[in-house]
Structures are given as C-alpha cells and as structure tokens.
C-alpha cells in the first residue's frame, strides 16, 4: 500500500521493451536487470508476467481509464445524453412512487 507522499516512478515504453528484450532474448535474470537499471525487482517481474500473459493484459502501453474529453466523438456525447435521460426518467419514477 502506498504511503502518504510516496512518489511513483514512470518508465518509458522503450525502457520496458529494452528490459523485456534483454530478459527474454538474451536470458538476463531479473535480479541483474534490477541492479543494472535501478528498478525494483518486483516491477520488472510484473512486466515479465504481463508480457508472458499478453492475452490477459493486451499491451503494457495501452491507455487506461476513461477517455479524455478531447478524444470523445459526437456519438459518445449522444450516448451519454441518452443514458442521462434514461436515468432522469428512472429517478422521476422513483420519486413519484413514494
């Protein structure tokens, strides 16, 4: 669990690819990679696990979370509007039932 004020390091996709390449193609152990690149061994082992189980983790660099407002299309806004209309109708029905 993260402690208050803890800083998390971010690694570029090139660094991750380089480490995974060294581990998988050159058979360099994760302990040596950890010391060489000054990255926690647990982080490297997580990357290796995700790489080896790619069907469950479709890409290490895949964007996560909800899309940014600038990435939304007109259809996305229409869909959100329809969902809100249905929810408002539901809430109105709930209030009238009481």
β-strand percent reads under 5%
- What string, H for helix and E for strand, traces the elements in order? HHHH
Helix content: 55-70%
Count of DSSP E strands?
A: 0
Structural class estimated from helices and strands = mainly alpha
Could you name the ranges where pLDDT drops below 50 across 5 or more consecutive residues? Answer: none
Q: Report the average pLDDT across residues.
A: 84
Query: What's the tally of helices?
Result: 4
Radius of gyration: 22 Å
Shape category: elongated
Number of separate structural domains: 2
* First-residue to last-residue Cα separation: 44 Å
Major sheet = none
Description:
The radius of gyration is 22 Å and the shape is elongated. The chain contains four helices and no strands. The protein folds into two domains: 10-61; 68-98. α1 packs across α3 (41-52). It is mostly helical and 98 residues long. It has helices at residues 13-25, 30-37, 41-52, 74-97.
Topology record:
Elements: H1 13-25, H2 30-37, H3 41-52, H4 74-97
Helix pairs in contact: 1-3
Question: Keywords, please?
Answer:
98 residues, mainly alpha, 2 domains
What would a concise description of this structure say?
With 98 residues, this protein is an all-alpha fold. The chain is built from four helices and no strands. The chain has helices at 13-25, 30-37, 41-52, 74-97.
């Amino acid at each position: 669990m993260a402690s208050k004020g803890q800083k998390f390091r971010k690694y570029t996709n090139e660094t991750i690819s380089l480490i995974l390449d060294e581990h998988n193609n050159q058979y360099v152990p994760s302990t040596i990679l950890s010391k060489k690149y000054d990255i926690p061994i647990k982080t490297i082992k997580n990357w290796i696990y995700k790489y080896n189980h790619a069907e469950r983790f479709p890409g290490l660099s895949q964007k996560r979370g909800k899309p940014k407002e600038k990435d939304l299309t007109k259809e996305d806004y229409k869909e959100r509007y329809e969902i809100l209309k249905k929810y408002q109708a539901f809430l109105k029905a709930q209030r009238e039932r009481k």
